[in-house]
Each structure stands twice: as structure tokens, then as C-alpha cells.
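Entry for the shared binder. Reason: the reviewer on the internal report wants the predicted structure included alongside the sequence.
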Amino acid sequence: MARFKEAIIDLDIPVYKSAAAGQKTIYHLYNSSEEHVGEFTSAKDCKVHLEDLEEIFDIDTTGYTREPEVRIGDFETCTRTLNHLIEHYIKVADAEKGLFSIGGGGKTFRDDVGVSKVYKGNRTQEKPHYLKRLKEYAIQKYNPKVVTGIESDDQISMWLYESYLKGLESRDKNKCTRIMVDLEKDCRTTPSWHIDPEKDDEPVWISTLDANRWCLTQSLAGDQADHYAGCKGVGYKTAEKILRECKTTGEMWNKARETFIEKGHSEEYMVEMCRLAFMLREGDIEEDWKVLKGG
């Protein structure tokens, strides 16, 4: 019998990963005379070959050029990859079934929150060829909740927090019947049961203090993928060190606030960073994040 009733999964991530499996980038190398030298399955292999030409054969590769070519494979490769991943995630989570969310596109409230930089404004990479088609397949097969106005991250966080509150009422964390499959670092800003399928052998319990500490850590350090900067000169190791000895959420908030002010930021800027890092818990976009103040 499975330990949990539901494994909470953000489908956006495995869908994107599986769509990418349906294509392959080949790197062509040309010499200074524009003659084709060879093709390589990765940029790294191409770079190693160039180094070998210089170091072993003493060939001047200054005029050499590299050109990528995207080769599209079968759509069935994408569906097989996606189904395998979902099956694996549910099994690793020791759950009876999955509970899925997926983004419906369009603006979210974070687009209005992010004023110092455009939220996710650095995402210019071309999307996988089969992404749209695979998303349609995933919606049909897994019947996820398609969310708008918020992110899929927020929806899975609210589902997990709902389960967390039930366990909190009974004062028994084993009464929490859902577990989140952590596919990115934002996930652990929500308290309850988690499992990272790449790292964890067993479910990990994240307390409210743990979750708030991680959220404030992200607020200080920033997130390059989501395009918010955090506190000037503070990375993840430094942020973790700043908050390590704090015993309460209120202490962490004050320590983070001191750091932001010392680095020349306003409290309004700190609030912006916190709201961008915080995943909704009860669904109120204006109020939920205020638990980080510890009040």
C-alpha cells in the first residue's frame, strides 16, 4: 500500500523536458576555408575536438566556426518520455496517484509584482518543436488543473499546504496525505512532505520555519532563471549563513531586512523579492507572503 494518496506534480517541467527529448542539436565544425571538419552531438565534444587539433596536431583553429543544426525526431519519443517520467515520479513518491497542474499561459500576478526587472524577462531561448503538441497531449491524458493568473508552482503549493493544515490540526504530520515532487528549487518554500526524485531516497519533511527560511534565502540570493536579482552581492551560501542562526521567522525577516538596507536597497525592493520568491499557500496574492514577516 502506498504511503501517500497523491503525488503533487507541476506538469510544465516534465512536459518541457520531454518535448526537448524529441529533438537533437548537432554541431557542425568548419575550418577557416569553410570546409566541413565534422559533426558532434554536443558543444562540449566540439570544443574538445578543437583543443585536440591545437594541442596534439598544432593546427591553428582561429578561423574555425561552429554551426548548430536542430534535427526533429518522432513525437512518440516525447510521449514515451513524459509517461515514463510521470510513472517514475509517482513511484518514487510512494503515492497512489498523481495530482497535476499546468500553466495556461498569459500574464500572472508576478508580472505586475516584478518592477525592478521584467519577471522571467530573460527567457529568449527557442522552445522545443513539439512543446505545444505535447502540452495538449498531457492535458488530455493527465487531466491537470490548467491555471491562469497564477503559476503552476502556486497551484501545487496551495494543494500541498491544504494537506499540511490537515496534518497540523491533528498534530500528526503523518496525516498529511499529499507529497510534492520537487522538480525545481522553488518547491521547498512550502511546508509539508517533499521528495526530490534526483536526490532523495525518502520523503523529506519541511516545517513552516524551514520553508520560510528557504523562501527568504531565495529572496536574498535572487533567481537568475526567473530574472529577479535579490540582494546586491549576496549569493546562496551567504544568504544561508545570514539566516542560519535565526530561531523564528520574525528573526529571519529582520535579519534579511537589515541585509537589504545595508546593501542600499529599500524595504519596498525587499518585499518585491519576497513576493517573487514566495509560492502561494492559501491563494491570497496580496496577503499570503506576509507570513514571512513572522507576525
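Summary line for the report: Residues 24-72 form one domain.
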